[in-house]
């Protein structure tokens, strides 16, 4: 065995050891959070619905998805349009990844989205859809160019002020009255800090801890400052109204999202569980998990060192022979 072959073998061996750690760290980004699909289909002629053959629409959608996937290896946000083959309709679409994930994880996340849409259980034939995973989302909308009045279709959702509420999740409530009032005061301050900081953020993303509250928020990357501030303000208001006593929440609006988690140990209330922030990796509040990862990494390095030492000894022995 020469040195080059042994080096390649060592690299492959270490990659094999490290694979479980890397796959576990990014696989949760592709977990489904929610999906919304239009009831309209591309090939029915009812009222103002589109007249496209299933085959033509499928080809247009596939071409759109291919563009989005290709761009996700270079950027965390991209918006584009695709004209139908018969030029009777145009499909606009976009993807966005969370700003705190690596570009490689963004690509994997976006690449896993089309099967959710094209499967028999999700959004088959819909003229518009939005699918949200933990690390990214994709959405598309179809416009009928041949109609007298051009109206884009909209996915399901309810209107709250100036924003479309697409999805919400409220965590378990706080039952202790004294803890509740302290929690509400802390959350008010945390929300104020979030709104102040995201207004100054160039990438329209914020993630931080405010005392015992972990927060994350993001607007569509091409939103201007006013649009982003308004959307986040609506998300904060909705979180207060609908999840007022919840220790965690996820609020998804049409143009932004907000999530928060109130961690255990605060205000001497042991009854509040310490879950990780919905859709995010926990930082300083997940010490046992971090310690396990560090210990595992150290074990891998130690095994690799022993393997390399044994291999070098073998090579030196062969040289003497």
UniProtKB/TrEMBL annotation:
The keyword Transmembrane applies. Its main location: other. One of its GO terms (cellular component) is plasmodesma. It comes from the Eukaryota. GO terms for biological process: plasmodesmata-mediated intercellular transport; transport of virus in multicellular host. It is found in: Cell junction, Plasmodesma; Cell membrane. Keywords: Cell junction, Disulfide bond, Host-virus interaction, Membrane, Repeat, Signal, Transmembrane, Transmembrane helix. It is a single-pass type I membrane protein. The keyword Transmembrane helix applies. Residues 1-25 form the signal peptide. Pfam families: Stress-antifung. The chain crosses the membrane at residues 290-311. Residues 39-145, 162-265 form the Gnk2-homologous domain. Belongs to the cysteine-rich repeat secretory protein family. Plasmodesmata-located proteins (PDLD) subfamily. This is Cysteine-rich repeat secretory protein. It comes from Arachis hypogaea (Peanut). The lineage of its organism: Eukaryota, Viridiplantae, Streptophyta, Embryophyta, Tracheophyta.
């Amino acid at each position: 065995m020469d040195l080059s072959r042994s080096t390649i073998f060592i690299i492959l061996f270490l990659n094999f050891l490290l694979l479980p750690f890397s796959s576990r760290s990014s696989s949760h980004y592709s977990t489904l959070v929610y999906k919304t699909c239009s009831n309209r289909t591309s090939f029915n002629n009812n009222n103002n619905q589109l007249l496209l053959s299933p085959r033509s629409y499928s080809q247009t959608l596939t071409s759109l998805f291919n563009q989005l996937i290709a761009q996700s290896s270079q950027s965390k946000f991209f918006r584009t349009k695709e004209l139908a083959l018969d030029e009777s309709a145009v499909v606009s679409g976009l993807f966005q990844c969370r700003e705190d994930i690596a570009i490689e994880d963004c690509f994997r996340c976006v690449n896993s989205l089309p099967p959710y849409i094209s499967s028999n259980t999700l959004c088959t034939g819909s003229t518009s859809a939005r699918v949200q995973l933990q690390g990214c989302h994709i959405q598309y909308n179809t416009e009928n160019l041949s109609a007298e009045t051009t109206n884009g279709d909209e996915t399901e959702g309810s209107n709250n002020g100036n924003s479309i509420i697409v999805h919400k999740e409220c965590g378990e409530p706080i039952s202790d009255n004294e803890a509740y009032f302290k929690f509400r005061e802390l959350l008010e301050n945390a929300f104020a800090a979030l709104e102040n900081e995201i207004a100054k953020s160039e990438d329209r993303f914020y993630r931080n801890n405010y005392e015992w509250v972990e927060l994350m928020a993001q607007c569509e990357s091409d939103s201007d400052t006013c649009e982003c501030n308004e959307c986040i303000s609506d998300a904060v208001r909705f979180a207060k109204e609908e999840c007022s006593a919840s220790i965690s929440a996820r609020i998804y609006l049409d143009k932004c999202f907000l999530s928060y988690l109130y961690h255990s140990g605060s205000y001497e209330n042991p009854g509040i569980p310490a879950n990780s922030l919905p859709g995010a990796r926990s930082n300083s509040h997940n010490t046992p998990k971090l310690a396990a990862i560090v210990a595992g990494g150290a074990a891998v390095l130690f095994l690799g060192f022993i393997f390399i030492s044994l291999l070098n000894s073998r090579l030196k022995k062969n040289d003497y022979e």
